[in-house]
């Protein structure tokens, strides 16, 4: 029995996580696994009902489960809340309290959606990379960070602080992940200017010696920003510190051109991982059955792969999504002129039907092989 915490959150969160749970049930049925779900509150809905975006019970519940699946948080209803009551604060605090230091964002382009990219099809075709971003250190957390009044006027300071151990654990994660892929790591830094980047680069070099089957190259962040849109296919695993990763991962998400397609995972050294689509709560379409559930369904694939090591089950989800897209099924966000638009529920169902067919096909092929 594997236990999964479900945090639906706000806006389209409940609609897309519902499809995710239905898909998990299908996975269970096809492969003989059973999943147990425990629901917790986070974000705006938790502010409304509990007075805080991350109730203690939610943190407790997450810690008791093997993995966490989250929809999205936020919306205009809570825009005027104090910083400590903002829905997004709930998510930041959850990542912090579970010490989720590694953020994984795969970017792969489905051939059926090549035209959705703002880049030319010949540039994005074949792109399949994984961005590994350090999530709990660096400029966003370093102290001091403050404004000071001086006789010459205001001055301001932010601090880019990292320990070598923080660098080492994220770099190791990247090398480990590269072993599951094409065994190539690109480490992104600004070593020509920043001392923190120089230690980052030295640490990467040192760690690379433990992974001789994985190749390592270094790239300056300004060059990486260009290379991502010039030739995204050159990357396998791209690893970088917090702020560079924040910017590069958003840039990379545009390679696919569709926010509703991209999953993410945030992992710690131990304990449950957090899986969520990268898009927000899409308040403009909440409750209208227009949300694209595919980013959340891909997040389920990541959950199965990274938290439960169920690689075959996970790959079949990606295949089912690909098959649904190849057959022309589209939610409104990825539909082009003339293409038929289906609802959130219909898309969820189409993926489940393909999942069933794909797993049955695999099984009958295995039987033929054995006989
Ligand atoms: P958003 O990602 O919610 O929406 C941007 C646009 O993309 C909207 O037009 C929306 O309808 C569309 N869209 C997003 N996801 C979609 C999907 N699955 N299917 C179809 N269309 C989709 O970003 P936003 O509008 O800037 O933010 C809305 C709220 O979400 C804000 O409160 C923001 O703070 C929050 N937010 C939360 C997260 C998170 O929970 N991880 C991430 C980003 C933004």
Write the layout of secondary structure elements.
Elements: E1 2-9, H1 13-31, E2 35-40, H2 44-50, H3 56-64, E3 67-72, H4 87-97, E4 102-108, H5 121-124, E5 128-134, E6 142-150, E7 153-159, H6 164-179, E8 184-189, H7 195-208, E9 215-220, H8 221-230, E10 237-240, H9 242-256, E11 263-267, E12 273-277, H10 294-307, H11 311-326, H12 344-370
Parallel strand pairs: 1-2, 1-3, 3-12, 5-10, 8-9, 8-10
Antiparallel strand pairs: 4-5, 4-11, 6-7, 11-12
Helix pairs in contact: 1-10, 1-12, 6-7, 8-9, 10-11, 11-12
Description:
This protein is an alpha/beta fold. The chain is globular, with a radius of gyration of 21 Å. Helix 6 packs across helix 7 and helix 8 (221-230) runs parallel beside helix 9 (242-256). The longest helix has 27 residues, at 344-370. A ten-stranded mixed β-sheet has the order 2-1-3-12-11-4-5-10-8-9, with helices on both faces. Strands 6-7 form a two-stranded antiparallel sheet. The protein has helices spanning 13-31, 44-50, 56-64, 87-97, 121-124, 164-179, 195-208, 221-230, 242-256, 294-307, 311-326, 344-370; strands spanning 2-9, 35-40, 67-72, 102-108, 128-134, 142-150, 153-159, 184-189, 215-220, 237-240, 263-267, 273-277. The protein has two domains: 1-107 and 257-371, Isopropylmalate Dehydrogenase; 117-255, 3-Layer(aba) Sandwich (Isopropylmalate Dehydrogenase), CATH 3.40.718. Nicotinamide-adenine-dinucleotide is lined by residues 12, 72-75, 88, 91, 259-260, 276, 279-285, 291-292, 295, 333.
